[in-house]
Design brief:
Strand order of the largest sheet of chain A: 3-2-1-4-5-6
GO molecular function, one term (chains A, B): CoA-transferase activity
Order of helices and strands of chain A: EHEHEHEHHEHHEHHEEHHHHHEHHEEEHH
CATH class of the largest domain in chain A: Alpha Beta
Keywords (chains A, B): Transferase
CATH topology of the largest domain in chain A: Rossmann fold
Distance between the termini of chain A: 35 Å
Structural class of chain A: alpha/beta
Pfam families (chains A, B): CoA_transf_3 (PF02515)
CATH architecture of the largest domain in chain A: 3-Layer(aba) Sandwich
Protein name (chains A, B): CoA transferase
Oligomer: homodimer
Number of helices of chain A: 18
Radius of gyration of chain A: 25 Å
Chain lengths: 393, 393
């Protein structure tokens, strides 16, 4: 079946998480993604969890499915010439070096766009290609902190809390993908490539939703709210006998259904809870306590089933095993399996964007280190051996 | 200056946060986005913060900049015919009703693609258009919980914690944008539109990075880790005299610089801290305590300046005001200002994806309710009055 990016050639000069996540999205939708690793490999190969039998990184296998892989020593001038040859035929190069490093390696946009003016060049970095912090090193935790997200995550009485997944990495990779696709569409009209520049700090800042306007329009600095939403009540996570459930009751109609369902119609008579606004003001205390008490005496799945029937937004706080095995995750093909040459059958997250006519798919496993080097450069065994000894790969 | 999506016509049948975020990304990059609200308006208009003078929602103003807006009562058959006329000229329709609602309103993909086979139709919902949970209601907190993210956010000794911003909403909106752009690019080759289907549950699940393979490959169920990364140490958030700082020391070389910078070279002699692996195993205790003590005696900005100089990844945990005023946020134009007809000068987040040749921009404010209805349908004052009285708008 045709895919949206059939025929689009991408070179991925990326390591770790953020750039490769973009490469994965492009590859899932049909782009031919060629991952170029330094001779000692992407550092992600050394990050766990590891397959016990083969020693391969499960993290690497997940992020680099559907890609081909070669090694190339870009510090070697002649090896770099071989890279330039690949660039002539490419539509897209993506990189996630720290700002400045691509230039030092002579693989920056300026250099490559002279070789191929149709080239789209995507850069993903901690702070972006411009500005006073451009050259500072960054990790996900730094971008989450400086972007303002850590300060609003967690409980008012607790400390600032980072998100449990590296969303500065993967969401920035997603924005890089948005940029590449914008540039590809634009090139259909103009015939010209361009430079796409995304940053982890910008990305986190862009996700803060109305916390920014709370300051600029509302005039106050928002603080941590725990699991509560200040503008909806009840809207919280509650402890059941055997775990936790999230419950959101967004309007008066739902509140009536909710109170009847939990057998606490007296709450409907209480003037403190007449409207959503009043419930928000008076949530802590009787209302929260009543729900805590009711939830605390029941099993999470029973609560979920009950609210599911009456249409109250509700969901169990699932751990990884439970999420993987959830019928909706299964029905949506959000777990996929590939056959890896050394790991065997391996499973991980599937394709998030569902397209009716050109659906993406996971069809091939991540490459072994340097697996496609000889093939991509069309080298005889002797040539390959010779250039390997010269330190090209 | 030309933008990437110049000439692309988008109709936004969206409310609240998730769909409008996608519409915003498309509009920022040049698409003509026409937002269709029901006669009583997008519910987001009732969500704060509110401008004191005009009563307008700052949240609405942020998410709907660069769009035109009309009201239309899609439940009225004749009004719906006017909508179908707009669809004939549109490239994209996006909607974020609960699954099933678009069909009931007769504005679903099947209906509209018969009117315009080139139409790209994007659906964003809590659980997606397919699967056993498809029709269940969802909020951000439900998707974060069921997607597995809440269970891994927060501290091991604490309770599951939701992310302080509604990332199930805005990241799903970003994936919807990816899907629309894939479909637009594909249509350049095939001439045909298609249906794009994204879900908040799928999105959150896709962001869990290696937590999924920790179970499928590593064989264990990961738990909350607080602010620590189990595979890097030191990597944590520390309390300074006047706030918090995030510090990440990712390898042996950085660890040497770090110890020398904080004047604790004795840590380098300790065999427990020789390698990153050993530091991870032995982090809690002497190593964490030493850093806590050192950071606790200093001001956050001094620490940030010091580590910035020596190249240790570090960043202050910023609140909204501090993030807005950070020189890098300013240098990257991540805050922009528009002149709103009733709010006056209003500022919020800018354009995240930076394109060198076709840069996006924020050029016009969010529409007042029904501001462009008469113009879009090219109605005389009399016609407009008559149809308004008939309940079309």
């Amino acid at each position: 079946m045709a895919k949206a990016l059939d025929g689009v050639k991408v070179i991925e000069l990326c390591h770790a998480y953020n750039g490769p996540f973009c490469g994965m999205l492009l590859a899932d939708h049909g782009a031919e993604v060629l991952k170029i690793e330094p001779p000692n490999g992407d550092q992600l190969r050394t990050w766990g969890p590891f397959d016990k039998k083969s020693g391969e990184s499960g993290f690497f296998a997940f992020l680099n499915r559907n890609k081909k892989g070669i090694t190339l020593n870009l510090k070697n001038e002649q090896a770099r010439e071989m890279f330039y040859e690949l660039v002539k035929e490419a539509d897209v190069v993506i990189e996630n070096y720290r700002a400045g490093v691509a230039k030092r390696l002579k693989v920056d946009y300026e250099t490559l766009s002279k070789i191929n003016p149709r080239l789209i060049y995507g850069s993903s970095s901690g702070f972006g290609q411009t500005g006073p912090w451009s050259n500072r090193p960054c990790y996900d935790i730094v971008a989450q902190s400086m972007g303002g997200l850590v300060n609003i995550t967690g409980f008012p009485e607790g400390i600032p809390t980072k998100v449990g997944a590296s969303i500065a990495d993967n969401v920035t990779g997603t924005f890089l993908c948005v940029g590449i696709l914008l540039a590809l569409y634009s090139r259909e009209k103009t015939g010209k490539g361009q430079h796409v520049d995304v940053a982890m700090l910008d990305t986190i800042f862009s996700l803060l939703e109305n916390s920014i306007v709370k300051y600029t329009v509302g005039g106050y600095i928002p603080d941590r709210q725990g699991n509560i939403d200040p503008s909806i009540a009840p809207f919280d996570i509650f402890k059941a006998k055997d775990g936790y459930v999230a419950i959101g009751v967004g309007n008066d109609n739902l509140f009536e259904i909710f109170c009847k369902t939990i057998g606490h119609e007296e709450l409907l008579e209480n003037p403190k809870f007449k409207t959503n606004d009043l419930r928000c003001q008076n949530y802590i205390g009787d209302l929260q306590d009543t729900i805590r008490d009711w939830v605390g005496k029941r099993n999470k799945q029973d609560i979920d089933d009950l609210f599911g029937k009456v249409g109250i937004p509700c969901g169990v706080v699932l751990n990884m095993k439970e999420a993987i095995e959830h019928p909706q995750i299964k029905a949506r093909d959000m777990m996929v399996e590939v056959d890896h040459p050394t790991m065997g059958k391996t499973s991980f997250q599937g394709v998030t964007v569902k397209l009716s006519e050109t659906p993406g798919a996971v069809e091939s496993p991540s490459p072994l280190l340097g697996q496609h080097t000889q093939e991509i450069f069309n080298l005889s065994d002797e040539e390959f051996k010779e250039l390997s000894e010269k330190g090209f790969f």
